[in-house]
């Protein structure tokens, strides 16, 4: 979820919340990693030892996702696919050839970094005994407290610049992946323009063209409407139900109101 500014004929330009639903497992993995990298960036900006603890926890979650599948191969496939599509589109009317050329150059630079034989994605992080000790205890509630991991307690007591230096070395191992995902998801989100729709009594349904490679559904809704979408999507059809929760302790329910919103069906 993110906050964007959207124009709409249904309501004046306003701040809106963007809710997203990935349509395949690859996109789900990419978006989870994107979320974790944003979280990691936030925590590494802090100087307190609790910021460092949170950064380490997030980094270990990144490693866990990388370890579950061949993320590197999936990212390389996507970079190559985007490069092929962009090469085909760059000569079409309405496409800025210079911007297309710049993006193609960025795709190739990032592809080389991800595919570098000298850089095995997160290999050093997986082999680190220090991080392994934290990972083994992290599954236990409170398992990384000071008496469980005295070596970590000692490291966290070091000055902030020293901890930041060590973190930077570890994060550098996955930085090519972060950069690649940032570009891939930017191209995906910008691959289609928003279309304005209306959810009658809070519900909207649409059939998808099975011949098109849809990657992501984005729903943009004005914050002042005080509703949020529940998106269920399959290969051929998706449904958006707008829910409201006037009282936080109560269960959310489908709004009886008509809800104007903007829909983006990302195909790139």
Query: Globular, elongated, flat, extended or rod-shaped: what is the shape?
Result: globular
Q: Unreliable stretches, pLDDT < 50, 5 or more residues? A: 3-13
Major sheet details: 5 strands, antiparallel
One letter per element, helices H and strands E, the order comes to EEHHHHHHHHHEEEEEEE
Find the count of extended strands (DSSP E, 2+ residues). Answer: 9
Question: Using only CA atoms, what is the Rg?
Answer: 22 Å
CATH superfamily of the largest domain: YacF-like
Integer average pLDDT: 90
Q: How are the strands of the biggest sheet laid out side by side?
A: 1-2-5-9-3
Helix content: 40-55%
Instruction: Kindly give the count of domains.
Output: 2
The CATH C-level name of the largest domain is: Mainly Alpha
Helix and strand content put the structural class at alpha+beta
Number of helices: 9
CATH topology of the largest domain: YacF-like
Percent of residues in beta strands:
15-25%
CATH architectural type of the largest domain: Orthogonal Bundle
* Gap between N and C termini: 20 Å
């Amino acid at each position: 979820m993110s906050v964007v500014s959207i124009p709409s004929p249904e309501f004046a330009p306003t701040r809106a919340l963007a809710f997203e639903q990935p349509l395949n497992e690859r996109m789900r993995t990419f978006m989870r990693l994107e979320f974790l990298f944003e979280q990691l960036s936030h925590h590494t900006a802090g100087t307190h030892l609790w910021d460092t603890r949170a950064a380490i926890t997030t980094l270990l979650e990144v490693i866990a996702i990388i370890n579950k599948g061949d993320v590197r191969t999936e990212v390389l496939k996507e970079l190559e696919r985007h490069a092929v599509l962009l090469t085909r589109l760059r000569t079409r009317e309405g496409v800025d050839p210079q911007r297309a050329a710049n993006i193609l150059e960025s795709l190739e630079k990032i592809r080389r970094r991800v595919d570098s034989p000298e850089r095995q994605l997160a290999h050093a992080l997986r082999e680190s005994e220090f991080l392994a000790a934290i990972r083994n205890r992290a599954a236990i509630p409170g398992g990384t407290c000071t008496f469980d991991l005295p070596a970590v307690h000692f490291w966290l007591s070091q000055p902030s610049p020293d901890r930041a230096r060590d973190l930077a070395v570890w994060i550098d191992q996955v930085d090519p992946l972060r950069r690649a995902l940032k570009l891939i998801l930017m191209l995906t989100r910008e691959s289609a323009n928003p279309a304005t729709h209306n959810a009658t009594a809070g519900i909207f349904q649409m059939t998808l063209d099975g011949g098109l490679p849809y990657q992501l559904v984005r729903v943009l809704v004005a914050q002042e409407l005080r509703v949020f979408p529940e998106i269920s999507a399959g290969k051929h059809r998706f449904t958006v139900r707008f829910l409201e929760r006037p009282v936080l302790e109560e269960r959310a329910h489908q709004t009886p109101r008509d809800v104007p919103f903007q829909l983006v069906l990302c195909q790139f």
